[in-house]
Design brief:
The complex is a heterodimer.
Chain A (H helix, E strand, L loop, with lengths): L8 H22 L6 H19 L9 H20 L5 H26 L7 H27 L13 H21 L4 H19 L7 H23 L2 H25 L3 H6 L24 H9 L3 E6 L1 H5 L3 H13 L3 E6 L9 H8 L7 E3 H4 L8 E5 L8 H4 L18 E6 L19 E5 L2 H15 L2
Parallel strand pairs in A: 1-2, 1-4, 2-3, 4-5, 5-6
Helix pairs in contact in A: 1-2, 1-9, 4-5, 4-8, 5-6, 5-7, 5-8, 6-7, 8-9, 11-17, 13-17
Chain B lengths: L2 H22 L7 H12 L3 H9 L6 E4 L2 E4 H28 L9
Helix pairs in contact in B: 2-4, 3-4
The chains are: A alpha/beta, B mainly alpha.
C-alpha cells in the first residue's frame, strides 16, 4: 500500500469482499430463528452477488465470453434443479450440490497447476494437492451418496474383500505422488494420476456406507466442500474464500457431530463400521412369547378424539409414504376438538439433519409445534396418546434401559412413558439396526398394522364421520 | 506469497472457524436442512476463483483438438465456473424455497 489516497481497483474489490464476508456471517446469524431465516438467506445471496460483480473488475480477467457462457449455463441448471426437486429428495440434492462445490475448487486448483507448472515454489503445489484431494473426494463421494439416496444403486453398505486395505493403498499412493509433485518435479502425468486416485478414493470411502448413515456422510461432505474452498483461498491468496470456506467447514462439522451423537456412534464407526451391510439376525432380547396388541382405525380414532394431549412421532417411514399431509389433516381435525397436538422430532428422523422439519413444514405444520428431543422428552409423562408413524429404532426403550442391546446409549424419544402409544407400521419388521423393539410388546402400546397414508386416511374419515 | 502473508491468512482462517462455530451452534435443529443447503451455497464462493481463472488468457498450455486451439487452464476454469454457479444459484434458490414453507402457528 503506497498511500491511503492511492486507491486501486484491487483495493475496492477487497473491500467489497469484506462486505460479502459480513453478509455471509449475518446470513447465518439470521438463521438462528425461522422468522428471520429467509432474510438471512437473502443477505447471503446478495453478498455472493456483490462478490461476483466485484470480481468481474479483476485486472487479470481479459475475456468475458467464457464467463458469460459459464454463468448462464450454471444458473439455468441450478434454478431448474432447485425448483424441481421434491422435499423428500433434499438430501441427494444437497449431496450433489456439495459435489459441484468441491469439484469447482479442485478444478480451479488444477487450472492453477497448469498455469504454475514451472514454479520452484513448493507452497502453491502443496495447496493445489490439498485442494485437489479434498475437492475431488467430495465430488466422487457426493455422486455415490446421491446415487444411494436416489436409490439408483443399492442403499445397502456394499462390502468387498480387502476393502480397507484397498482404500488405504489408494490414500497412501495419493500422498506419495503428491509429495513427489511438491518436492521433485511437476509432472503432468503424475498430476493426472493423482486426480484419478482422488476420484477413486471418494468412491471407495462412500460405497461401504449404508443408506441410513447418509445423514452423517452428507454433513461430512458439506464440511469438506467448505474446506476445499478455504484451501483454494490459501492458494489464490484470497481472504473471502478462506473466511467462507471456514464457515461452511465449521457448519458441516457441527452437523456431523450432532448426527453421530444422535446415533450414538463415532465418526470412525460410521465411515469404517460397515453398519447395515447385512440383516442382523441378533434381535436382542427374546420377545417371541410376548403378546402384541393389535388395534383398528375405529379404536385409534376414539382414543385420539377423546384425548387432551397428543404427540405425533414421525419417522422416515412417514416421508416414504408421503403421509405428511394426512398427519396435518388429522391434527387439524383433532385441534378443532380442542386436543393439544405436538410433534416430537428425533435428530435422525429424516435422511439429513433437520429433514423431517422441512417435510412437515411443507405440509403447513407450524414450526412452533415441532419439538426437539431435549425439549419434549419430559412431556411424554403427561401425554395421553403418542402416535408413532414410521419410526422404530429412535423410540426403542432398550436404547435407554437394556445395556446388552446394540442400541444402548442412543438418545431416544420416551414415547413409552405416555399413557397410550399407537404405532402405525406395516409389520413387526425391525428397524435399520435390525433390533426387535420392546415398545411393541408393552401393555400401553397398540399396533395399527397399516401403510402410513392408508391408516391415517381411515382414522381421518372415522373422526370426520362419527366423532365430530 | 511470503511467510507474513501466509501467517496473516492462517490467522483469518482460525478466527473464521471460531466465528463459524459460534454462529452455527445457535441455529435451531428445525433449520438444520436449510442451514446445510445455505452453507453449501456459500461454499460456492469458489465461483470468484473460477471467474478469474476462466477470464485469464494464458497461452502457455494449449491443446489442439480438431484444429481448434484450446487453453487447458481456461477450459478447467469454465467447468469450475459452471459447477460453482450451479452450487451458488441452486443452493440459494432451494434454501429460499424451503424457508418460505416455515410458518408460525396462529394460536387457536
Amino acid at each position: 500500500m503506497n498511500s491511503l489516497m492511492d486507491i486501486t481497483m484491487n483495493d475496492i474489490i477487497q473491500l467489497v469482499y469484506l462486505i460479502a464476508a459480513i453478509a455471509f456471517m449475518l446470513g447465518i446469524k439470521y438463521l438462528s430463528s425461522p422468522s428471520t431465516a429467509r432474510k438471512g438467506n437473502l443477505f447471503a445471496s446478495v453478498g455472493m452477488l456483490l462478490a461476483i460483480v466485484a470480481t468481474l473488475f479483476n485486472e487479470n480477467i481479459i475475456s468475458y465470453e467464457l464467463i458469460v457462457v459459464g454463468l448462464i449455463t450454471g444458473s439455468l441448471i441450478g434454478v431448474v434443479l432447485a425448483k424441481k426437486v421434491q422435499m423428500t429428495a433434499m438430501p441427494q440434492m444437497v449431496a450433489i450440490f456439495n459435489g459441484f462445490g468441491g469439484s469447482a475448487s479442485a478444478l480451479i486448483a488444477s487450472a492453477e497447476f497448469v498455469n504454475l507448472s514451472n514454479t520452484p515454489d513448493k507452497f502453491p503445489i502443496l495447496m493445489i494437492s490439498l485442494s485437489v484431494l479434498i475437492g475431488f473426494v467430495t465430488f466422487s463421494g457426493s455422486i455415490i451418496a446421491f446415487l444411494k439416496l436416489q436409490e439408483l444403486i443399492s442403499g445397502r453398505a456394499i462390502i468387498y474383500p480387502f476393502q480397507k486395505t484397498i482404500t488405504a493403498i489408494c490414500f497412501i499412493s495419493i500422498i506419495a505422488l503428491s509429495s513427489y509433485l511438491i518436492f521433485s518435479t511437476t509432472s503432468t502425468i503424475a498430476f493426472i494420476i493423482v486426480i484419478s486416485l482422488c476420484l477413486l478414493l471418494g468412491i471407495l470411502l462412500v460405497v461401504p456406507i449404508g443408506g441410513a448413515d447418509m445423514p452423517v456422510v452428507v454433513s461430512l461432505l458439506n464440511s469438506y466442500s467448505g474446506l476445499a474452498a478455504a484451501v483454494t483461498g490459501f492458494l489464490l491468496n484470497n481472504l473471502l474464500l478462506v473466511i467462507s470456506g471456514s464457515l461452511v467447514g465449521a457448519a458441516g462439522l457441527i452437523l456431523t457431530t450432532i448426527m453421530t451423537k444422535a446415533m450414538n456412534r463415532s465418526l470412525v464407526n460410521v465411515i469404517f463400521g460397515n453398519f447395515g451391510a447385512t440383516d442382523s439376525s441378533d434381535s436382542g432380547p427374546d420377545n417371541t412369547d410376548k403378546i402384541v396388541r393389535s388395534t383398528s382405525f375405529e379404536e385409534v380414532a376414539i382414543l385420539l378424539a377423546y384425548a387432551d394431549r397428543v404427540i405425533f412421532v414421525p419417522g422416515y417411514g412417514l416421508a416414504v409414504a408421503q403421509a405428511q399431509h394426512q398427519v396435518r389433516e388429522l391434527a387439524d381435525l383433532l385441534e378443532s376438538k380442542g386436543v393439544d397436538i405436538r410433534y416430537a422430532i428425533h435428530p435422525v428422523a429424516g435422511r439429513m439433519p433437520g429433514h423431517m422439519n422441512v417435510l412437515l413444514a411443507e405440509a403447513n405444520i407450524p414450526y412452533d409445534k415441532l419439538y426437539d428431543l431435549d425439549d419434549i422428552n419430559d412431556s411424554f409423562d403427561n401425554t395421553d396418546v403418542s402416535v408413532v408413524i414410521g419410526a422404530n429404532d429412535v423410540i426403542n426403550p432398550a436404547a435407554r434401559d437394556t445395556p446388552s442391546s446394540p442400541l444402548y446409549g442412543m438418545p431416544i424419544l420416551n414415547v413409552d412413558k405416555s399413557r397410550s402409544v399407537v404405532v402405525l407400521k406395516r409389520s413387526m419388521s425391525p428397524g435399520f439396526a435390525g433390533v426387535d423393539n420392546d415398545l411393541f410388546y408393552m401393555d400401553n402400546t397398540m399396533m395399527f398394522f397399516r401403510d402410513a397414508k392408508d391408516g391415517l386416511n381411515e382414522i381421518i374419515s372415522e373422526v370426520k364421520d362419527n366423532l365430530l | 506469497m511470503n511467510e507474513i502473508e501466509l501467517i496473516f491468512i492462517l490467522y483469518v482462517f482460525v478466527l473464521a472457524i471460531f466465528v463459524g462455530f459460534e454462529l452455527i451452534t445457535k441455529v435451531p435443529p428445525t433449520l438444520h436442512t436449510p442451514l446445510m443447503s445455505g452453507a453449501n451455497a456459500i461454499s460456492g464462493i469458489t465461483i470468484i476463483g473460477a471467474l478469474i481463472v476462466s477470464g485469464q488468457t494464458n497461452n502457455d498450455a494449449t491443446l489442439s483438438l480438431f484444429g481448434i486451439t484450446i487453453n487447458i487452464a481456461t477450459i478447467l476454469g469454465l467447468f469450475a465456473l459452471i459447477f460453482a454457479t450451479i452450487n451458488v444459484v441452486g443452493g440459494f434458490t432451494v434454501t429460499d424455497r424451503m424457508l418460505q414453507m416455515f410458518k408460525k402457528g396462529n394460536n387457536r
